[in-house]
Design brief:
single chain, 82 residues, mainly alpha, 0% strand
Length: 82
């Protein structure tokens, strides 16, 4: 008998250890939709303020933010260890 209460549940993603948005962004593969990012953020246990900020992004703002994130990643800003 399995000791886990829900043996059929999927293990949480690596992002479960993320404590802030920057750490989370280091772990996701781009491109990623706004909805997917929000879902991962919720599962990773980010604080309510960060989740609320993500929820306020419109698709247009997210697209602009995504291009900024892509540039940061390209230049290595998001690759540095915390």
């Amino acid at each position: 008998m399995d000791a886990r209460p829900y043996p059929d549940t999927v293990e949480p993603p690596e992002t479960a250890a993320c404590t802030d948005l920057k750490s989370l962004l280091r772990t996701v593969d781009f491109p990623i939709s706004r909805r997917e990012l929000q879902s991962i953020a919720v599962r990773s246990g980010l604080d309510r303020g960060t989740l609320a900020a993500l929820n306020t992004l419109t698709e247009e703002h997210y697209a602009g933010s995504f291009s900024i994130l892509r540039e940061l990643r390209h230049h290595g800003e998001l690759r540095r260890s915390a």
